[in-house]
Amino acid sequence: MKVCNPFHFPKENNLDLLRLIFAVQVIFQHSSQHLGSNVPGILKHFPGVPAFFFVSGFLIYSSYQFTSPTHYFQNRCLRLFPALFFVAIGGVLILCFAKGWGYLFEHFPLVLLWFCGQITIFQAFNPSQFNDVGVGVINGALWTITTEILFYLFIPLLVFCEKKFRHSLCLFIFASFFFYALGEDLLGELIYADKSAYDYLCLTPVVWGWMFGLGILSVKYFRFLKDVLPYLILLVLPMVWIIHGEYGGLWLESSGNKLGLLYFIFYSGLILWAAFFLPPFLIKFDLSYGLYIWHMPIINLLLILKTPSIGLALSYSFLLALASWFIIEKNAIKFKKSSLKNVL
C-alpha cells in the first residue's frame, strides 16, 4: 500500500549509508579503546551513537505516523529481535570459548538469565562472573538497544500527549536534557551493584531522549528545513572551531557520546545535509545493525585469542553482518506491514 509522506522528506536519501558510516565509526572507536589500534583522532568528534539516536528519532516517529500501532510494534520487533537472538547465541559461544563448555552446563541458569536479557530489554545485564571475558562485558555495545527499545515504547505515549498538549515534545526534550545535564550530580549516589540511579537512567530515553527529540523536531519541521539544506554544510565551521579549541562542557563538548548541546545541534544539521542534500547513494542491503551488534563479540574473541587487530575486527564484523542481513534480517523484514520505504 502506498501512503503519503506527511513530513515531506525525500524517499531516496542517504540515511542508510550514514547509519553504515556511524556503525563503522563505533567499531573504530571500540577497536582503539580495547584493541590498542591507532585510529584517526578526528573520528571521536563524529560519534556514531548520538547520531544513531538522532536518526532514530527522525525515522521512528515518522514510521508511527502512518501505520497502525499493531503494525508499528510488529515492525520494530521484526527489525530488532531476530538478529538479536542470533547474536546472543554468538555471545554464549564466546563465553564457552573463553571458559570452556563445562562452564555452560555448570552455570546454565546464569547463562540462560543473561541470554534472556539479551533478547528482551535487559541487554546491559552482565553478571560479574563474566568480567574476565575479553573486555569484561560480552556485548557491551547493546546498552543502546535497550535505550532504543524503550524509546520505541515511548513514541505512542508521546504522540498521544501531543494531541492533548501541543508542546509535549518540547517539554520532553527539556526534561531529558535536564537529566542529561544534572542527573549525575543529583542522582549519583550508589544504590545497587555499584551503580547509581543515574547509571540506570543512562540506559533509558530519560537521559538520551533529547537527542531522539531533536530528530523528531527535524522531521516535524522538515518542510521548513528543506529550504536551508544547502547551507547546513556551513555548520562545519563552528564544529571545526569547537574541535580545534578543545572546548568542553555542557554546551561545547565535541567528543564521545556525551556531546554538548550546541555541538550536537551542529552535528545534527550536518547529518541532515548529508542525508537529504547530497545526491542519494542507495545501497541494497543494510549492514549497519549487523555491524553494530556483532562487533563487540568479535573484539572479545580477538582478545581471547590474543590477536588484537582492527583489520580482523572489521573483516569479521562485516562477514557476520552480511550473514545476519542475508540470512536473518532480510527475511524477517519481509513480514513488516508498511514501511518508510513505501513513502512517496
Short description:
This protein is mainly α and 344 residues long. The protein has helices at residues 15-35, 48-65, 69-99, 101-106, 108-118, 143-164, 168-186, 197-201, 205-220, 222-225, 236-245, 249-252, 261-276, 288-304, 310-332; strands at residues 190-192, 195-196.
Structure commentary:
The chain is mainly α and 344 residues long. It has one domain. The protein is 65% helix and 1% strand. It contains 15 helices and two strands. The chain has helices at 15-35, 48-65, 69-99, 101-106, 108-118, 143-164, 168-186, 197-201, 205-220, 222-225, 236-245, 249-252, 261-276, 288-304, 310-332; strands at 190-192, 195-196. Strands 1-2 form a two-stranded antiparallel ribbon. Strand 1 and strand 2 form a beta hairpin. 36% of the residues are buried.
Instruction: Please indicate the count of domains.
Output: 1
What overall form do the CA principal axes indicate?
globular
Total helical elements: 15
Q: Tell me how many strands there are.
A: 2
Note the topology.
Layout: H1 15-35, H2 48-65, H3 69-99, H4 101-106, H5 108-118, H6 143-164, H7 168-186, E1 190-192, E2 195-196, H8 197-201, H9 205-220, H10 222-225, H11 236-245, H12 249-252, H13 261-276, H14 288-304, H15 310-332
Antiparallel strand pairs: 1-2
Q: Which characteristics define this entry?
A:
about 350 residues, mainly alpha, two-stranded antiparallel sheet, 2 strands, about 65% helix, about 0% strand
